[in-house]
Design a protein that fits this description.
Elements lengths: L2 H6 L1 E6 L16 H15 L4 E4 L11 H15 L8 E2 L3 H4 L20 E3 L15 H7 L4 E2 L13 E3 L2 E5 L2 E8 L4 H8 L5 E3 L14 E7 L22 E5 L5 E6 L6 E4 L17 E8 L2 E8 L6 E7 L11 H22 L10 E7 L8 H5 L13 E4 L3 H5 L6 H4 L9 H7 L9 H13 L5 H19 L11 H18 L17 H8 L7 H7 L26 E2 L9 H11 L8 H9 L6 E6 L10 H5 L31 E5 L2 H10 L9 H9 L15
Parallel strand pairs: 1-2, 2-4, 4-5, 6-9, 8-10, 10-11, 11-13, 16-17, 17-18
Antiparallel strand pairs: 1-14, 3-7, 7-8, 12-13, 14-15, 19-20, 20-21
Length: about 725
């Protein structure tokens, strides 16, 4: 190439799916991904390319280990930081292209000598996640080693809206517009492409001496291409016709030669992965990277093989087609499979390029055992330890179905890769199985799953359950006919409450119906949302606020302020409970951290036992100085259906009660009051913690304990 041609030719090395850190705990294969990436960077230096372009999945894990991060940074620092001049310039608005704290391409930083710029999008393995929407590639970008682009913010309503701004590059007379689209869930992106104006492509402005048609347009994306399910793949025909060249990541089969799409006018290259992550036929093909040379509106591709990749041999056999196998003799099957494995190992050794560094090969045999017995793959592979890199999974057995026989030419690569499985949300699963949610609304469960996965919120499901239980209890407690609810109608009543809550939410502003923290009722949700969204269980004040999930109707274990008479002062009080916690807050904190024990009785048994109780229960309130935590005001509101203790009298027979000892006993006065029997039994039913959750050992001790002498001040015996 002449000097004039060199100054006008942009040279790009293209690679995708490096999967750094794959099998990092395997003693044999742990270094494979790093050796391949090191070779890619070495090729880039050797060929003197202008920059290295990566098509996603640089890391195998969303949260790579420290070992993986350190090795990746070492490789990039070794090959990218030098004093070689960069021959091209970025002429677009870099603050739009690179969404980080610095907002410019890394080689323009005066504090770094970057001789090999690296441009990368994210894939489905290293996609952004968490509250700050950060990816592992953001770490490399903050280290000024990688230019991270193609990170989209899904704005708008409904399916969302994205805008693709190109990175405009110029080298001599050659101008290139580089578009990047990081991985988006295939089903959603599919709908976005079919929604008008949901995907907007920004074109370069017309400048003097440079028309829009003079730009060479490249797109890098990381999505499903094989259409095993049309809704979970992206069709080439969704893409605009002004594109010239497309780098397609995510598909691991190496189809490096550019293929023209009929009727679209652009070419697609699929470099594939640089390390085999699935033992399938598509991964066994030789691995390559692509050297792309662009001058004007023309390009020249050159594929370069990777020599450091571990050899991989794949074959399929059908036992019934082999003449030397007896279906009733397992030894004949073993002998035939041994012969096949030895042939594959020998074939792999002949392909080795570097004889001084011969790697143990990967071997996979897919066996159709229709009409034959299977053998243990692990036991079969033990004899090949030290001869192959994957002795534990050399064999994979399958039976060809009738449909599979007629469609034997279908590539099953998508069926075997877990990341390609159909992704559904909870709403779709519930609708598909005709499930009816009795207490938890589907939308709340969907939000909880989203927060748990994407925002790493460990208490997402706990908050969802507690918020909805609290809301249901509040609805039932406020019902004027709560005392008349019969046992058989309780489930129907809960279902009606769910419908009422959903109607109430539909009338609220958007976003107000979402649960924010544990145990917030619908009354105080808007008042306390800011202080509880990030509640900490280690802080007494925060935990006290979160103890609001215990409703006033839990007369057995919770606070009994709702049972005080009208003339009593509103001092901090403590219920009888089991006597071990100074307030409901302590019990909630312990249960939240250890997990609530499941009651041994069914819900119907609990309801039956509750409603068959015909005796009046006498409640006593003990003022204790050790319970200084302020109770939320809505506690008294929730128990508005129960009458005052001084005016209400039950008709049931009194029973003697055992005393319960609690921490920090106070010297406060004790009063007694009575509720009518149906109200007491209903409140016991609505109580969050069932009496059955006590340890068997504690129950035995309490049964063996001598009963104290009965006086009027002790109250009713707890059943």
């Amino acid at each position: 190439m002449s000097r004039e041609d060199y100054s006008d030719t942009l040279r790009v090395l293209v690679a995708t799916d490096c999967h750094l850190g794959y099998m990092e705990k395997d003693e044999i294969r742990r270094h494979d991904s790093f050796k391949a990436f090191e070779e890619i960077c070495s090729i880039a230096e050797e060929k003197q390319v202008d920059f290295l372009l990566l098509g996603g999945d640089l890391f195998h894990e969303n949260k790579p280990s420290r070992t993986t991060l350190v090795k990746a940074i070492e490789i990039l620092r070794r090959h990218c930081l030098n004093d070689k001049p960069v021959q091209f310039q970025v002429v677009s608005d870099q603050t739009v292209n690179f969404q980080n704290a610095f907002g410019h391409v890394n080689y323009e930083d005066p504090h770094f000598n970057v001789g090999l710029p690296v441009f990368s999008i994210h894939g489905n393995h290293d996609d952004p996640a968490g509250v700050d929407n950060l990816s592992a590639i953001d770490i490399l970008s903050a280290c000024n080693l990688v230019n991270y682009f193609g990170k989209m913010v899904l704005g708008g309503s409904g399916v969302g809206q994205i805008s693709l701004y190109p990175i405009l590059m110029r080298k001599g007379s050659t101008t290139v517009a580089l578009y990047g689209l990081g991985n988006i869930r295939d089903e959603r992106l599919n709908r976005m492409f079919q929604t008008p104006h949901a995907v907007q492509w920004m074109r370069p402005e017309v400048q003097e001496g440079c028309d829009v048609s003079d730009w060479f347009n490249i797109l890098v994306l990381h999505q499903n291409r094989v259409k095993s399910n049309p809704k979970n793949a992206i069709s080439e025909h969704f893409l605009p016709r002004f594109l010239d060249f497309i780098v397609w990541g995510h598909e691991h089969e190496c189809l490096i030669d550019p293929q023209e799409v009929s009727g679209m006018g652009f070419h697609i290259t699929q470099p594939g992965s640089s390390v085999a992550t699935s033992l399938i036929d598509g991964e066994s093909k030789p691995k390559h990277v692509l050297l792309l040379e662009i001058k004007g509106n023309q390009y020249r591709p050159t594929k370069i093989p990777l020599t450091s990749v571990r050899p991989f041999e794949y074959t399929e056999i059908v036992l019934k087609d082999e003449g030397d196998i007896d279906p009733n003799d397992q030894n004949s099957i073993l002998e035939h499979l041994d012969k096949v494995v030895r042939n594959l190992i020998e074939k792999a050794s002949k392909k080795a390029v570097n004889r001084s560094d011969i790697k143990l090969p990967l071997v996979r045999i897919k066996v159709d055992y229709s009409g034959f017995m299977t053998i243990n793959p692990q036991r079969f592979g033990q004899k090949y330890v030290g001869k192959v890199a994957n002795p534990q999974d050399i064999l994979i057995f399958s039976k060809a179905s009738k449909k599979g026989r007629s469609e034997a030419n279908i590539d099953d690569s998508e069926r075997l890769r877990p990341e390609e499985l159909n992704q559904q949300n909870i709403e779709a699963l519930v609708a598909e199985n005709n499930l009816k949610m009795e207490i938890l609304p589907v939308n709340d469960l969907d939000v909880a799953l989203h927060n748990f996965v994407n925002k790493d919120d460990k208490l997402a499901f706990y908050s969802c359950v507690q918020y909805n239980l609290q809301e249901t209890r509040g609805k039932l407690a406020k019902d004027s006919d709560a005392q008349k609810i019969e046992e058989d109608d309780l489930i129907l009543k809960v279902g009606e409450c769910l419908e009422e809550r959903l109607k109430d939410r539909s009338t609220r502003p958007t976003g107000s119906s979402q649960f924010l923290s544990t145990g917030l009722t619908s009354e105080n949700l808007t008042k306390r949302s800011s202080g509880i969204a990030n509640a900490s269980f280690s802080d007494d004040e925060d935990t006290t606020q979160m103890s609001g999930l215990a409703p006033a109707t839990r007369g057995r274990r919770g606070s009994s302020t709702a049972n005080t008479s009208r003339g009593r002062a509103k001092a901090p009080t403590r219920g009888r409970g089991r006597g071990k916690a100074s307030s409901a807050m302590k019990q909630t904190t312990l249960d939240g951290s250890l997990g609530f024990r499941q009651s041994q009785r069914s819900a119907s048994a609990a309801a039956s036992a509750s409603f068959k109780s015909a005796s009046a229960n006498e409640e006593d309130d003990v003022d204790s100085p050790s319970s200084e935590e302020a109770e939320p005001e809505h506690f008294n509101k929730l128990d508005s259906t129960s009458e005052d203790d001084e005016n209400t009298k039950g008709k049931g027979r009194k029973r003697p009660a055992t005393t319960k000892r609690g921490r920090g006993r106070g010297s406060g006065t004790s009063k007694r009051g009575r509720k009518n029997e149906s109200s007491s039994s209903l409140h016991r039913l609505l109580s969050k913690d069932d009496d059955e959750d006590e340890d068997d050992e504690d129950i035995e001790k309490k049964l063996n304990r001598s009963q104290p002498r009965v006086t009027r001040n002790y109250g009713a015996l707890r059943r």
